[in-house]
Amino acid sequence: MSGGGAVEARLAELGLTLPAVVPPLAAYQPAVQSGVYVYTSGQLPMVDGKLPVTGKVGAEVTAEEAKELARTCALNALAAVKSVAGDLDRIARVVKVVGFVASASDFTGQPGVINGASELLGEVLGEAGVHARSAVGVAVLPLDAPVEVEVQVELIAEA
Question: Fewer CB under 10 Å: which end of the chain, C or N?
């Protein structure tokens, strides 16, 4: 998948680079397309093949750190979308975001953490980035990641 359009130009304006697609950790695809929809698998906040931080939010990881990690998850999700859509400019809208936060037992700030992903999508895609969302606290995530985000987008149909 080569080239970049307006969405990738906007990423560059924000000082962001679309990363390589994070390879699957198990038996799944990073993203699949069904009709005009692309569904990503849960994206961890991997940077250069590793997690920058591990642990539970509200214990080893602060809510602010986790919010930044959620931004990374969303960036990884956009890379996964591009891997099947070919061009991020085909995104008509983000339909749904589901965020999982590995939470200490008394942590209740999951929505604020997942705002990191939601805000990134809004900054990059504008109105097309506005979406429905769930933010869920969980006991543990793969590799002891603090955050995981999955995204569902609707594409502009190819002519």
Answer: C
